[in-house]
Write a structure and sequence with these properties.
alpha/beta; Rossmann fold; 40% helix; seven-stranded mixed sheet; globular; 9 helices; single chain; 7 strands
Length: 242
């Protein structure tokens, strides 16, 4: 389920920091291919790089230049005003090389904008909230059943860690910020809800499913704001400096 809410929340963050259109944007990765199309709809000149996309089937038509390529080997005839990572930088290996490439592709004083998962910030209370919510929604028929390989693990934090085991390992939120600070002058660092994204592709299509996902998003937003659960999302903006 490619729910508009996924694009809506990220677009609201990007809109606060992007330069006025038309700006040259490079969007890297992400699980919602509608995001580059939405940015192009704002009047920006958008190039999108994703190894997993089939360019001929990607949304946006002639408004987005889709590249089915490895970002680390991407080159451009002109520098970009913005390099935006949408839920992809925490999977970059090594993250230092990805950020160095981003800096090389930006014009002087260009912007790095990122919305990412900080999986290391999830504690036992947060993991328990997510999996308890998952159990209730699945029992109500509002969510497809979880992967049985992980659902059998009764300890929520251990299950979270098992689900996020990867080779190469995912980059922690701490390491993302540290690497970004070494290469950019950070102008904004924010926490954000992120766990609702895990449910988006398991909620049935239609208005009812969209309403459930929005309710989960609003609940997570309130609970992270009130510190009842940890914020699993990390947003930051950095500027190139000489």
């Amino acid at each position: 389920m490619n729910d508009p809410l996924l694009v809506e929340t990220t677009l609201a963050f990007f809109d606060r920091f992007l330069p006025p259109p038309p700006a040259r944007l490079l969007v890297v990765g992400g699980d919602a291919p509608d995001l580059p199309a939405a940015l192009a709809g704002r009047g920006h000149e958008v190039t999108a790089v994703d190894e997993g996309i089939v360019a001929s089937r990607a949304p946006g038509g002639d408004r987005v230049r889709w590249l089915e390529a490895d970002f680390l080997h991407h080159d451009a005839p002109e520098p970009y005003d913005v390099v935006a990572f949408a839920w992809a930088l925490h999977r970059a290996a090594p993250v230092a090389a990805a950020l160095d490439r981003a800096r090389a592709l930006l014009r002087p004083a260009g912007l790095l904008v990122a919305e990412e998962l900080a999986f290391d910030r999830v504690n036992v209370h947060t993991a328990r909230w997510l999996y308890d919510l998952e159990t209730v929604l699945a029992a109500a028929g509002a969510l497809l059943a979880p992967d049985p390989r992980f659902a059998a693990e009764g300890r929520p934090l251990l299950r979270w860690r098992q689900e996020h085991a990867a080779d190469p390992p995912l980059v922690t939120g701490h390491d993302l910020l540290a690497a970004a600070r070494e290469r950019f002058a950070l102008e904004a660092v924010e926490e954000a809800p992120y766990l609702f994204r895990y449910l988006a592709d398991r909620i049935p299509e239609g208005a009812a499913g969209a309403a459930v996902l929005r309710a989960v998003f609003q609940l997570e937003t309130r609970m992270t704001r009130e510190r009842d659960i940890a914020a699993a999302g990390l947003r930051f903006v950095g500027r190139c400096v000489s």
